[in-house]
């Protein structure tokens, strides 16, 4: 699969993507563990069918120390025992925040309460922004057919983020 368009080569899109990358870098300084941020982004990439995001975030998670078993089980986190309660709360928030267009009323009170139980306001704000931003990234990548397979860990950091 060949990309339909190089967004970075577009003068307007390129400028917007640089600002997007700068916003993503702020999230990197969060107190949320990098492995959790990568697992959340991986799950959103899986839901939205973004090959580039699944490739990138599985490799970034591994580079951050995440185990192959946990990376492989993200897609079925509800049916596995390798995730902590805080991680499960973040993954549930990511799923509900991603599937807003599936006829759901948004994030359920129970899901929000579980996330609130495990994360402070700054961490919750980070999760909300992270989920929104990875959803935007997955949608851009899917629209232009950016394929997965050749991502090298650290690439996002080298360009200032996602």
Automatic annotation (TrEMBL):
Kindly give the InterPro entries that the UniProt entry links to this protein: AhpD-like (IPR029032), AhpD_core (IPR004675), CMD-like (IPR003779)
UniProt GO MF annotations: peroxiredoxin activity
Domain named Carboxymuconolactone decarboxylase-like: residues? 11-96
For this protein, the record's Gene3D superfamilies field holds: AhpD-like (1.20.1290.10)
Would you tell me the protein name for this molecule? Answer: Alkyl hydroperoxide reductase AhpD
Origin species: Actinocatenispora thailandica
Lineage, please?
Bacteria, Bacillati, Actinomycetota, Actinomycetes, Micromonosporales
């Amino acid at each position: 699969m060949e990309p339909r368009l190089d967004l970075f080569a577009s003068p307007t899109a390129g400028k917007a993507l640089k600002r997007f990358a700068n916003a993503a870098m702020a999230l990197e300084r969060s107190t949320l563990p990098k492995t959790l941020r990568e697992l959340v982004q991986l799950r959103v990439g899986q839901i939205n069918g973004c090959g580039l995001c699944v490739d990138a975030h599985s490799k970034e998670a591994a580079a951050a120390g995440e185990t192959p078993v946990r990376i492989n089980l993200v897609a079925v986190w509800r049916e596995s025992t390798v995730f902590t309660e805080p991680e499960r709360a973040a993954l549930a928030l990511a799923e509900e925040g991603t599937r807003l267009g599936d006829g759901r009323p948004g994030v359920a009170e129970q899901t929000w309460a579980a996330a609130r139980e495990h994360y402070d306001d700054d961490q919750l704000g980070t999760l909300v922004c992270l989920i929104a931003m990875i959803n935007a990234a997955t949608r851009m990548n899917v629209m232009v057919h950016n394929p997965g397979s050749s991502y090298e860990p650290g690439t996002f950091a080298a360009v200032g983020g996602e």
